[in-house]
Specification:
The structure is a homodimer of 203-residue chains. Chain A has 203 residues and is an all-alpha fold. Helices cover 75% and strands 0% of the residues of chain A. Chain A is built from 9 helices and no strands. In chain A, helix 8 runs antiparallel to helix 9. Chain A is elongated and about 65 Å long. The first copy, chain A, starts with a helix and ends in a 7-residue tail after the last helix. The relative contact order of chain A is 0.11. At the A-B interface, helix 1, helix 6, helix 7, helix 8 and helix 9 of A face helix 1, helix 6, helix 7, helix 8 and helix 9 of B. The structure holds a DNA duplex (30 and 30 nucleotides).
Amino acid sequence: MTSSSTRARLLAEARRLFAQAGYDGASVRRITARAGANLGAVTYHFGGKQRLYHEVLAAALAPLAERVVRAAAGPGDPLSRLGAVMRVYFAYLDEQRDLPGLILQTLAPGRSLPPPVRAAFGRILAALTGVIEEGQRVGSIVNGRPLFLTLSLLAQPIYFSLARSGLSKLTDGLTDRPEVAAELVEHALGFARRGLSPAPEVP
Amino acid sequence: MTSSSTRARLLAEARRLFAQAGYDGASVRRITARAGANLGAVTYHFGGKQRLYHEVLAAALAPLAERVVRAAAGPGDPLSRLGAVMRVYFAYLDEQRDLPGLILQTLAPGRSLPPPVRAAFGRILAALTGVIEEGQRVGSIVNGRPLFLTLSLLAQPIYFSLARSGLSKLTDGLTDRPEVAAELVEHALGFARRGLSPAPEVP
DNA sequence: GCTTGACTCATACGGTCGTATGATCATATT
DNA sequence: AATATGATCATACGACCGTATGAGTCAAGC
């Protein structure tokens, strides 16, 4: 029991530090010290730093993919299901504030993306392109590569949450006020909805 | 002359390595070795690693801000000027492939963003919100916070270029083919244009 | 021809890093 | 009671880090 509690504390502190300082910046020494564990605990419980990292990523991303897939398979027409997906995305990013910092570090070119990230994004992309193709068949979604439309849609929640930390410094904390954050979600939904809808014919 | 050539080689190799491996991952030893310079050269020419880093960032971002501001001040109605800005953005990101990796590393939460990044993005944001406010006054751009609309617009080129390295692995290099890349630019322009335009009245 | 200044060089310093090693402890099983 | 097992511990190892130091090089100016 104590063993699993040490394991859990290591996971929690590792996640906090990886998100804050990146893979290189979060040293095994700091992680174990903050978790109140011995230096060797990471090697013992996870086999090494990288394996711990992958476990942290999987724990952070798997629930997101799960919820997105469920929202994409929910009731309603394709456009409103995509709106539901975006709300799920924003909600998840809001309740897991450290997630942007976590995945941001993994996207650096030169390194290959960790398997948990690959898996989660693969599931999400597949679910969304499916919904978009369905919408294109019934004419409620504009024509074009479903993959591109999916990415344009995902760009909204991802970019906003990635930019949040940087932007709150550029805008004097504006985006941190809760009512502004809610307004931002509605804005992103509207922008994406217009972007996905077929353009009205110009006379 | 040889001195300035060493300086230039240091800048070039530092940029390559910072983009690829991040600030921590790019060691002064590797930078100087690849530049064919002595270990002490960074300290001598730039005063330290961080100053070299800032100089690299400034050299990479200042021209982008310059071109964006110029495109935003060009001729034409607001919507087409914003389209021009997006084209400039895509073109710049295409000719400076290492730029996403470079700025991505600076966005990590916990660290404050480097002054050159702050300055460039500040200029870009100011120019774009100005154009959007102008479009809102003449009714060609949907209402809402200009800042949010600016971010939604910027999300397209930035997210696509950030995601390019990761996505080319998820999509088997699809996005690397030049005609697909060109199609992607047109897609992003269309998506953003629809997102910025006022929604047609629903009867 | 000598000096001055900008530059390059080899080397040293104190730190931090991830991991390996073997001892020690607590607890459950025989 | 003795032992086996899983967990924790202090410590050591080799590697790499950014920077400082001082000696060496070499062309330009007097």
